[in-house]
């Protein structure tokens, strides 16, 4: 197909008229499709309905150590949950705390505690610095950025590549500024870019010289077993940090939100023993017990890592046709037009579309006008501002397949129209 950049003005005008007509045709169909967030589909949630039967009014609600899960008790997780999720995170049983129902809750809590009290080894709370800062690889996750803004952490954007953040820049930044306290990392199938950190990036993150001795990597491993096409094993960051002599550098987060039921999962924070002890003391102030009934339900249903991996294959079977639909439509409709590029993730929950600069907002608006709600343009960047106005997060997991196909057709027409408009305005 001819790149739009090679078309004459008259050809672009004609194309514009045709694309406007196409969009009007879709608009007349009265579509109402919402792809704004990366939610699991109903089919995925159905996979774990049996979990609701494994703990019921006839069940023994005692954990392995005899604790009555219906009551207040050990706040760091019941033994069988600690064992299963320590294996899931690849850590020892005394290097993990099993707590809330969503990892965002833990990420947010961990940031708030650091701002109020500091972390192990802090001279003072992060919030007592004049301009405490956090490194934010972009494109990244809007919730991470929202947390930083809320707690008063200045965000420093760093480009993210397929194999991880630009490490030359990260090393330079952290070496020179004691008020840079931490960094977001989504090491595997990152939201939304699908990046998987290479061994080199991981070692450099673990080894780098930080001016702040209380610097922490917030290792949000939300998609560690979430393969769709092909696995990309990523090194265990706690092991690497220990190996290079910086065992306390990382907090690792995970949850079962994208395994069982989203927002109703079990979630965990893992770290060195020293960090874990420190975190446990802080949690003791916050609560006298997390939802142990949910832990019990999860462990009795999931049972083992082998079972979790089998369940993840069922998720992949549901997600693959959806990702095929998105990538297939882009390949068919957009290849060779010079109107952007897109990621080809092997797992996770998202595809990222990189539009012709200056077009992302217009594309999202055109889709919204046609009944297709996408994640806001700019959500992939700190403060919601993408300086190039290029990145769009596509979340294919939630809509039924037929709706997703329709939405992607609308998206492609919107991409073409916005690109033609841009070229005509140039
Ligand atoms: N972290 C990342 C990177 C995510 O993409 C998501 C889900 N969109 C979450 C955390 C949320 O997970 P949870 O439901 O466990 O809070």
From TrEMBL:
InterPro entries: AspAT_Ic, PyrdxlP-dep_Trfase, PyrdxlP-dep_Trfase_major, PyrdxlP-dep_Trfase_small
One annotated GO molecular function: L-aspartate:2-oxoglutarate aminotransferase activity
Keywords: Aminotransferase, Transferase
Superkingdom in the source lineage: Bacteria
Official protein name in the record: Aminotransferase class I/II-fold pyridoxal phosphate-dependent enzyme
């Amino acid at each position: 197909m001819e790149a739009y950049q090679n078309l004459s003005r008259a050809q672009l005008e004609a194309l514009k008229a045709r694309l406007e007509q196409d969009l009007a045709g879709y608009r007349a169909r009265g579509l109402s499709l919402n792809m704004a967030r990366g939610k699991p589909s109903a089919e995925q949630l159905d996979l774990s309905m049996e979990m609701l039967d494994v703990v019921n009014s006839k069940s023994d609600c005692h954990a392995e150590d005899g604790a009555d899960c219906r009551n207040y008790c050990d706040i760091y997780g019941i033994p069988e949950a600690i064992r299963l999720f320590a294996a899931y995170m690849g850590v020892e049983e005394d290097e993990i705390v099993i707590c809330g129902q969503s990892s965002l809750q833990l990420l947010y809590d961990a940031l708030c505690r650091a701002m109020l009290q500091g972390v192990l080894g802090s001279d003072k709370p992060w919030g007592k610095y004049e301009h405490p800062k956090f490194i934010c690889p972009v494109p990244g996750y809007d919730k991470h950025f929202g947390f930083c803004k809320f707690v008063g952490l200045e965000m420093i954007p760093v480009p993210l590549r397929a194999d991880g953040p630009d490490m030359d820049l990260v090393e330079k930044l952290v070496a020179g500024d004691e008020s840079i306290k931490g960094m977001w990392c989504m090491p595997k199938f990152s939201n939304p870019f699908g990046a998987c950190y290479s061994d080199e990036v991981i070692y450099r993150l673990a080894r780098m010289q930080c001016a702040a001795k209380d610097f922490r990597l917030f290792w949000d491993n939300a998609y560690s077993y979430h393969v769709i096409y092909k696995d990309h094993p990523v090194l265990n960051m706690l092991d690497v940090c220990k190996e290079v002599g910086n065992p306390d550098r990382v907090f690792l987060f995970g949850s079962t939100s994208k395994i069982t039921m989203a927002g109703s999962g079990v979630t965990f924070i893992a770290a060195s023993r020293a960090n874990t002890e420190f975190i446990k003391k802080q949690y003791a102030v916050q609560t006298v017990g997390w939802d142990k009934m949910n832990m019990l339900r999860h462990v009795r249903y999931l049972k083992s890592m082998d079972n979790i991996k089998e369940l993840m294959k069922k998720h992949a079977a549901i997600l693959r046709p959806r990702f095929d639909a998105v990538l297939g439509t882009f390949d068919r409709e957009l290849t060779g037009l010079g109107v952007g590029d897109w990621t080809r993730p092997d797992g996770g929950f998202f595809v990222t579309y990189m539009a012709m600069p200056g077009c992302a907002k217009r594309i999202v608006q055109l889709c919204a006008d046609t009944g297709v709600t996408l994640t806001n343009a700019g959500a992939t960047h700190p403060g919601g501002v993408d300086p190039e106005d290029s990145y769009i997060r596509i979340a294919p997991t939630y809509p039924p397949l037929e709706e997703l196909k329709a939405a992607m057709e609308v998206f492609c027409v919107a991409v073409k129209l916005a690109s033609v408009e841009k070229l005509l305005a140039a």
